[in-house]
Amino acid sequence: MLHYILRRLLYFIPTLVIIYTVAFLLMRAAPGSPFAQEKGLPPEVLQARAEKYYADRPLYQYFRYAWDLATLRGTPSIRYPERNVVRDILGPAFPVSLALGLCALSLAVAVGTAAGVASAARPRSLTDYAAMAGALVGVSQPSFVIAGLLLAVFSLWLRWLPVGGWGRPSQLILPALALAALPAAYIARLVRTAMLDVLSADFIRTARAKGLRRRTVLLDHALRNAWLPVLGYLGPAAAAVFTGSFVVEKIFAIPGVGQHFVDSALHRDHPLILATVLLYAVLLVAFNLAVDVAYAWFDPRIRYD
Amino acid sequence: MTDSPPESAAAQRARPRPALSPARLAMRRFLRNRLALAGLGILALVFAASLAGLVWDRWAVWSGCEPPYREQLPGVHPQPPGWVHPFGTDPLGRDLLARTLLGGCVSLGVGLAAATVSVAVGTVWGTVAGYLGRGTDTLLMRIVDILYGLPYILLVILLLVLFEERGVALRVAALFLAIGGVSWLTMARVVRGQVLALREAEFIQAARALGSGPARIIFREILPNLAGTILVCATLTVPLAILQESFLSFLGLGIPPPLASWGTLASDAVGALNPVQTYWWLLAFPCALLGATLLGLNFVGDGLRDAFDPRAS
């Protein structure tokens, strides 16, 4: 197992290098200059700015940015020249997204699993239909509509919760709900399908026949097997949720990293684009490894040696 | 033979029925799924309504009027739903019914275009990777992995800026392509997995032993067996593409105004939410149609999956 983890960790580096390179090439190939916003600047100033960001020396820029990001030193952003992409932009924003993402993901896993088990325990019952209808509504509206409605109902009309912002626990509830809606719906459907599949297996009949309580059969015997597909989904989902959501951050005024993914691409802020791409890639690769390790822990039949 | 006893009813029932093709069987299972049929019904209604919206628009243009989706009516707006404007009007005095129906055409168009791109590119990519195997497989699938590893919003925005400021038609086409361009990855993975499994199946080996070439095997043996998988995956791509278009509209990168899609209508309405005055109809009608369509597509997609893979249900 340790051997396997070490080997996978070794693969990290080439994977990240390739993703970085592709992002760099795409970014340089895309039309539009990052300096185009400031019209009317004298050519000398533009020249000086291009030099500051090594825009005229692509090869040097490629290695310089890579080195500065790998050592977490970072480079100044183009849109905000006085701010460093690591120290001043992603550094403070990432813990916010991480905290919000952890809340949202735990909520999604708890609610999704509960709904999935409840509906699989009694298929075609009222509980089943209600849970699956809820799950379908969760995936059939854009996230900004869900977030906007939560805000309108709980903050504007009922005035139970603050409109937005960050810092107090009460400000966490609505954005976590909005962010959890989609993964919760997806997990509920995954768990239901897998549970129905597992519940028809022979070992479940044996467990029931030997007189185990229904609860024990459902939760200990069936769920443990039925949860494996959820694990596979959690890897990419965690990477996506922890890198924030532009929509939720915009609507609830949260200083997370999600907005930088969109803004950096819109403004061709090259240093910030590369930093966000690497952040996402590191999270994705790390969570996929964590998921594969967790598979072996969940299902002892899986061995990687 | 004349003196043989007439067959009993039981024997008649026991006699093997003529074999049905897998597609026939799948169709039969699908038609028995009430939820899937309901989804199909919803989709038919929404399609018909959107087409009616398109006809209304064309008819207005043909008869020399301002198209109803951008005609700004005089008076105080927004007006709540009433007899003249069943869906009400928006703050600029445009009829919301016309905008919602035409928006339906755009949203459905985005979904269908994305599904088409994803079927075309994803199927070819996945089949080539799965069938050729070895180095080709590794190379093609690593490319998919890397594209998965990039934040998809970056890909979409970079694809969109390629066509920036070149007229409405090109921007809409770019939007279709950009959303399709990120949605083929899942299709390629699914198809490749199926091809890998099929390639070693006995009937493929039999075809190979009979002297069929790769082209014949792919087109006559493998692709017909993949049809179900591709259909299911494409059906489930459409709702995702519609949601992605609405997200891009929220960013202001969607359909350029005054044209509308469900996404732009909903995101404008969310922006107009405030505690003082509620214009509920601005949000309710586009979101209801959007939700109904996505529900219908999900029902149909689930129904198709169950129909093509009876083991899974």
Structural features, described:
- The complex is a heterodimer of chains A (305) and B (313).
- Helix content of chain A is 75%, strand content 0%.
- Chain A has 305 residues and is mainly alpha-helical.
- The longest helix of chain A has 37 residues.
- The radius of gyration of chain A is 24 Å and the shape is globular.
- The relative contact order of chain A is 0.15.
- Chain B is elongated and about 75 Å long.
- Chain B is mainly α and 313 residues long.
- In chain B, 72% of the residues lie in helices and 0% in strands.
- The chains are: A mainly alpha (305), B mainly alpha (313).
Any idea what the shape of chain B is?
elongated
Report the end-to-end length of chain B measured between terminal Cα atoms: 46 Å
Gyration radius of chain B, rounded: 25 Å
Structural class of chain A: mainly alpha
In terms of DSSP E residues, the strand content of chain B is under 5%
Strand proportion of chain A, as a percent range, falls in: under 5%
Helix content range of the residues of chain B, please?
over 70%
Coarse shape of chain A: globular
- What is the string of SSEs of chain B from the N terminus onward? HHHHHHHHHHH
Largest sheet of chain B: none
Q: What structural category do the secondary elements of chain B indicate?
A: mainly alpha
Please, how many helices of chain B? 11
Gyration radius of chain A, rounded: 24 Å
Low-confidence stretches of chain B: none
User: Which whole number gives the mean pLDDT of chain A?
Assistant: 84
Q: Which percent range fits the helix content of chain A? A: over 70%
N to C succession of SSEs of chain A: HHHHHHHHHHHHH
The number of helical elements of chain A comes to 13
Oligomerization category of the chains in this entry:
heterodimer
The chain pair with the largest interface is:
A-B, 43 and 35 residues
